[in-house]
Amino acid sequence: MEEKGPELRLFDSSEELSSGLADYVLQISDSAIRERGYFSLVLSGGDIPKRLGKLTRSPFSKMVEWSKWHVFWAEENVVPKRHPDSLYWQAKEHFLSKVPIQPAQVTPVSHGVPGESAADSYELSIRQLVRNRTVAVSPSSDCPRFDLVLLNLGVHGLYPNNPAVLGEESQWVCCVSSDSSTERVTLTLPVVNAAANVAIIATGTHMARPFLDAMKLGQRPTGSNPAQTVRPKEGKLVWFVDANAASFYLNCKGQAASSSS
């Protein structure tokens, strides 16, 4: 299967984006459950858990087959479980505690252990779920084929500019540090690009320049923004972008259209 180009979904407001994202997650969930009996969702931090709160309320809450869901993390800070910077804790507070997903359906990164140990343990847990077919496997590699990976576009792109993440080819999970005191466990790029569906969310005026660069219309060269490396090989990439984050991009597109006419 050939690599597909990204789909861009633009929304007038952040609230409309959240509703659109909820519709999208429900659609992918239903499709995966019909096809395989399970739905594997990979979360990130930022405001994604809060946005998924839409699914905990009517009409979505009664439409979701929660018993078929399995939840993972694309990244996690190596901090205590109840620490404010724990992405697991954020997801539990804003989303997971409000829906009937059982603990056995959630695969968090281990807390209270060194980063390398947490990464090794997390990868082992994922491999076990691939072996028992709860998580599908990529048809072209041994990577897990998650049904949906949700990512947030940050000021500096998606991932740390770290070869352990961007250049890793054999490991599914690695541990990186942004400084001497902060460690983060993250899925590697081949795992993200093996997913059936990847959605990247960009909202707010502070995301206007990073989004423009990610769309290869900024002043930075192609490949300088880590978001440009997210290209599902046998899946689909969808961008969810509000009007503020898309402002520079739409302006550039409009100027290009005017100059060519």
Automatic annotation (TrEMBL):
Q: Kindly state which reaction or reactions the protein catalyses.
A: 6-phospho-D-glucono-1,5-lactone + H2O = 6-phospho-D-gluconate + H(+)
- Domain Glucosamine/galactosamine-6-phosphate isomerase, which positions? 13-239
Which superkingdom? Eukaryota
Any Gene Ontology biological process: pentose-phosphate shunt
User: Known Pfam families for this protein?
Assistant: Glucosamine_iso
Alphabetized InterPro entries for the sequence:
6-phosphogluconolactonase_DevB, 6PGL, Glc/Gal-6P_isomerase, NagB/RpiA_transferase-like
Provide the E.C. number(s) assigned to this enzyme.
3.1.1.31
Pathways involved: Carbohydrate degradation; pentose phosphate pathway
Q: Which GO terms describe its molecular function?
A: 6-phosphogluconolactonase activity
Please tell me which top-level EC class this enzyme sits in: hydrolase
Record family assignment: Belongs to the glucosamine/galactosamine-6-phosphate isomerase family. 6-phosphogluconolactonase subfamily.
Protein name in the entry? Probable 6-phosphogluconolactonase
User: What NCBIfam families does the record point to?
Assistant: pgl
Matching CDD domains, A to Z? 6PGL
Q: What species is given as this protein's source?
A: Erythroxylum novogranatense
